[in-house]
């Protein structure tokens, strides 16, 4: 095999090992990794040793298991910052056009983390702190993300029963599914005072340049939201498509 092709193969195998360790907080043994990536244990051992030297994986305990290492957290934080920086002009333009607050969030398994926000110009605004976490089942951006999953994936991720936040909160999987199906058809989801009383929202989900799920939402005091849902949704969808193109092809 030519040296260049061999190097590409090694990188691909290392990436497969890292993916096998994703969502494995207790780590995996070399044999467990080998079974997942369908490689010989000796090959996995060499790859893991190289990854350990770069702190991309670390020992998960005395049992010989390994898990993802701290170097990946630093890389992920850097990518997250870059993604938010790329998205910022898009959400700023959307906020200016609507006069409303616009939030940008990343998905972390069963919740959202807000990483950027542009506050609108209205006196009465819906404002959340950057870094705050939100559930998926009762937020517009969360439901938009759930709509990108299969029904089985949703149930596995968030279960079938949910905590009540307001009188409008959907608290069962069976009641949530119709909302998710609407979001799949429309490409957009709504929160009508399901997370916070007095606040309604529209949300969309998309994938960043690495394929990680991110979401945009426009939270609005319900008194201003009623009657404007369609206009807000149309502008949010246009922003989603423009940002998705930016993530996909890197164009300005």
What would your notes on this structure say?
The chain has helices at residues 3-20, 30-37, 41-53, 70-98, 140-146, 151-158, 173-186, 222-225, 229-249, and strands at residues 57-59, 66-68, 102-108, 111-118, 133-135, 189-192, 199-207, 213-221. The chain has 252 residues and is α+β, with helices and mostly antiparallel strands. The chain has 2 domains: 3-68, Arc Repressor Mutant, subunit A, CATH 1.10.10; 73-249, 2-Layer Sandwich (Beta-Lactamase), CATH 3.30.450.40. Helix 1 (3-20) packs across helix 2.
* Class derived from helix and strand content: alpha+beta
Q: Could you estimate the helical fraction of the residues in percent? A: 40-55%
| Total strand segments | 8
General form: elongated
Gap between N and C termini: 39 Å
Q: Biggest sheet, strands in spatial order?
A: 5-4-3-8-7-6
Count of discrete structural domains? 2
The CATH superfamily title of the largest domain: GAF domain
Distinct helical segment count? 9
Mean pLDDT: 88
Q: What's the CATH topology name of the largest domain?
A: Beta-Lactamase
CATH architecture of the largest domain: 2-Layer Sandwich
Low-confidence stretches: none
CATH class of the largest domain equals Alpha Beta
**Strand percent estimate:** 15-25%
Radius of gyration: 21 Å
User: What is the chain-wise order of helices and strands?
Assistant: HHHEEHEEEHHHEEEHH
- Mind describing the biggest β-sheet? 6 strands, antiparallel
Organism: Roseomonas populi
Domain IclR-ED: 64-252
Keywords: DNA-binding, Transcription, Transcription regulation
Domain HTH iclR-type: 8-70
């Amino acid at each position: 095999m030519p040296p260049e092709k061999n190097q590409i193969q090694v990188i691909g195998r290392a990436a497969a090992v890292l993916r096998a360790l994703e969502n494995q907080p207790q780590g995996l043994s070399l044999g467990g990794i080998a079974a997942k990536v369908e490689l010989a244990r000796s090959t996995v051992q060499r790859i893991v040793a190289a990854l350990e030297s770069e702190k991309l994986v670390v020992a998960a305990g005395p049992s010989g298991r390994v898990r993802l290492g701290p170097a990946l957290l630093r890389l992920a934080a850097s990518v997250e910052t870059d993604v938010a920086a790329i998205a910022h002009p898009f959400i700023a333009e959307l906020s200016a056009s609507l006069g409303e607050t616009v939030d940008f969030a990343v998905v972390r398994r069963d919740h959202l983390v807000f990483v950027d926000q542009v506050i609108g110009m209205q006196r009465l605004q819906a404002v959340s702190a950057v870094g705050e976490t939100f559930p998926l089942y009762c937020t517009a951006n969360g439901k938009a993300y759930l709509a990108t999953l299969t029904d089985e994936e949703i149930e596995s991720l968030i279960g079938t029963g949910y905590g009540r936040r307001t009188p409008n909160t959907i608290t069962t999987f069976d009641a949530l599914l119709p909302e998710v199906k609407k979001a799949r058809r429309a490409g957009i989801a709504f929160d009508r005072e399901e997370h916070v009383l007095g606040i309604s929202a529209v949300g969309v989900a998309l994938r960043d340049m690495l394929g990680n799920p991110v979401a945009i939402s426009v939270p609005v005091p319900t008194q201003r939201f009623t009657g404007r849902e369609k206009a807000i949704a149309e502008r949010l969808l246009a922003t989603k498509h423009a940002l998705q193109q930016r993530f996909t092809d890197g164009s300005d």
